[in-house]
Amino acid sequence: xxxxxxxxxREEIVDAIKQRANRxxxxxDLQHLANAAGGSKFVLLGEASHGTSEFYTNRTAxxxxxxxxxxxxxxxxEGDWPSCYEVNKYVKHHPEAKGSVDEVLQAFDRWPSxxxxxxxxxxLITWLREYNRELPEQYRIGFYGLDVYSLWESMxxxxxxxxxxxxxxxxxxxxxxxxxxxxxxxxxxxxxxxxFFSELCQDEVLQLLRELEAKRNRAxxxxxxxxxxxxxxxxxxxxxxxxxxxxxxxxDSWNIRDRHMVEALNRVMQFYGPSAKxxxxxxxxxxxxxxxxxxxADHMVNVGQLLREQSEExxxxxxxxxxxxxxxxxxxxxxSPAEVLxxxxxxxxxxxxxxxxxxxxxxxxxxxxxxxxxxxxxxxHRAIGVVYHPHYERGNYVxxxxxxxxxxxVYIDRSNALQPLVPATV
Length: 426
Prior knowledge:
It comes from Paenibacillus lignilyticus. This is Erythromycin esterase family protein. InterPro entries: Emycin_Estase, Hydrolase/PRTase-associated, UCP036794_erythomycin. The chain has 16 helices and eleven strands. Strands 1, 2, 3, 4, 5, 6, 7, 8 and 11 form a nine-stranded mixed beta sheet that branches. Strands 9-10 form a two-stranded antiparallel sheet. It is α/β, with parallel strands linked by helices. It starts with 9 loop residues before the first helix and ends in an 11-residue tail after the last strand. Strand 6 (316-330) and strand 7 form a beta hairpin. It folds into two domains: 1-72 and 277-426, EreA-like (biosynthetic domain) (EreA/ChaN-like  fold); 147-255 and 265-273.
């Protein structure tokens, strides 16, 4: 495919970027952007890869400003709920929290562990814990995972807590777990059995979710341990659907996953109350409105689209991230070791290459409120996954109407690989 969906006047778009972009030389330079986003209910912070240091450090800077100055309640990320809940307990000084940040991040043991078990995340978590230190318990900032992959881990956590508290819902949990048990804790095995042999566990996990949801409602939503059980049950319900859809192919598995992330986010928002405000860290492909890309033609939705559809326009503020060139942590195949890979210079005519042409330095710009026509044209916009092949980049460019996909954009001219706790292969 072409990196640009239509023939655009190169000089015009480069000039428009020059006029609206702001230099990014230090974290304080993001202050005006944080202020622009701070009045929203949901601020969505993207990334063009899961392995770029500057995406994490700049999202941390923005998150600190949003929490300190604009009263945001929690950070929700593209990560597993059980692992992220260990972080949540640690940053909130919970009596059952792990003893150190490195010990906490060992909970991220599912590939690709480098997404959260990295030095950049250590800095964020350390700051959150210190910020929460003097706050009353009900005002402490939370940290949660929104993803759908942790079916067995979530079931383990539910059973452990229900046993500890001698809860009557334990019978429903054990019944659901026994249904999944023959599949050797392998989602694909379960998906094959469910999709082609009708060996379903759907009724069991739905019953468990109903019981745990009712339990939290009876408690008036005040106990976070009950929220933990409820979201873990929600993961089991939607993971069951996800793994069925995954083996069948098509857009359904993607849509189930993103709808789950929004449902989990909404339940956390409900727990925090009517004045809650959320910061969401996810890949650009999740937080940038799918309707402004070719995802719509493939009948795919995402978190950014769904949140905009359920909310007033001013309640959602999406900030995309991208880079012209540098290095990244990724792998050459699924579940292969992490490597430091080269990110080649962006293809000519792509959004990243045009920003580089406008100024070969870090910068950011706001789209919201602009009527600049060229920002509403289609450009190729690079997306790097956890599996990445720098020599075959043509398919990594998503046709995007930038001013409709995002409200703002942060551009890193030459970026560097993330720093995993377990060093990657160079």
